[in-house]
Amino acid sequence: MKRVIFCLLIGVAIIPQCRAGKNLLSGNFWDQYDSAERSRAADDAPPLTVAVEALGTPSEVSPVVAPVEDLFRKNYWYLLLLDVKEVSTAPARWDKRDWLVLGGLTAGIGTVAVFDRQIEKAIRRNRTDAVNTFLHGVQPLGNEYAAGIMGAFYFAGEIFKDPRAKTTALDSIAASAIASGVVTNALKYTIGRARPIDGLGPYNFQPFGGHDSFSSGHTSEAFALASVISEHYDTPWVKFASYGLAGTVGYARLNNNRHWPSDVLSGAVIGTFVGKTVVHFNQKHRTIKLQPIVGPNVHGAELSMAW
Questions:
Q1: Tell me, what's the pLDDT at 205?
Q2: Cα–Cα nearest to 170, from 290, 285, 289
């Protein structure tokens, strides 16, 4: 009996040692060695700093990372520069279908331009006091009131913690600035078309001569705003209301004898193109991103995510 107990004690003492020896000789020795070396190297490396940037909660580590939904952060204004670049270089990425669409739109604008005088006379003959009053109130939607609409979306997003409303406002600001302030103004002063009120006819062009009829800035801004809202709130009634109001702004410019019909049509095309381009480009940047951070006292990476 004593011998049996003695043998059991010896077995209990030996089995764990055998298991440990099996692990050491099982072929994982070099993996364990490499793991130990990596751990030692990590101890010698600078500490890793990971900054998490959530929607509306920007990191202070780097000002030029994925966009932050805040008008007063440098991140947003950096994104605006990227939007300008995206719109300016878009033709370089177009395929055959895109060029065909551009050709069709250009042909349509050119066809309307042929009949600019006739259309302008027809609109002038059908003016009424009621229509004039209504259009006089709608026209600022392409300029002064547009800022109020953008501001309403932005502050609604802030107050009600609605990221979609806030994003709509910021995309609208970018699209309107690019469509009206950059693209349209460049065309205005480069082409130098006389306005109807100048009395020089629809085909008076003086490049860089001071005339600024082509194309309509109010219309391009109105359609940029409409396209951004429609892209973020993709429902039929929103699209109808947004583009309907934008179209009314364009008609108001015709009714007030400020633009030729082809000016308004080109402004609508520019505004819609810029608005859609800005929204789709910015959506790609509202995803999880990881980028390195290198600075005097910072070594690590920045993780940006939106949800």
A1: 94
A2: 285
Residue 257 exposed, middle or buried by CB count within 10 Å (0-12, 13-18, 19+): middle
Q: How far is CA 249 from CA 112, 172, 226, 299, in A?
A: 18, 17, 11, 52
List Cα–Cα distances, 43 to 34, 226, 234, in angstroms: 14, 55, 52
- Domain spanning 74-286, CATH class: mainly alpha
What's the whole-model pTM score?
Answer: 0.72
How high does pLDDT run on average in the chain? 78
Q: Which residue has the higher pLDDT, 2 or 235?
A: 235
Structure confidence at residue 279 as a pLDDT band (50, 70, 90) = very high
Contacts with 60 (C-beta within 8 Å, 6 or more apart), sequence order: 51
Q: Minimal CA–CA distance to 195: which of 205, 187, 186, 185?
A: 205
186-199 average pLDDT score = 94
Helices (H) and strands (E) in the chain, counts: 12, 3
Range from 150-154, 259-263, 292-296 carrying the lowest mean pLDDT:
292-296
3-state secondary structure at position 148 = helix
In terms of pLDDT, which residue wins out, 54 or 45? 45
Q: How many CB atoms lie within 10 A of CB 183?
A: 22
Find, among 111, 58, 122, the residue nearest to 306 by Cα: 58
Provide φ and ψ at 299, rounded to 5°: -135, 120
What amino acid is encoded at 123 in this protein?
I
DSSP states of 247-306:
HHHHHHHHHTTSS-HHHHHHHHHHHHHHHHHHHHHHHHTSS-EEEEEE-SS-EEEEEE--
Say if strands 299-304 and 289-294 run parallel, antiparallel, or are unpaired. antiparallel
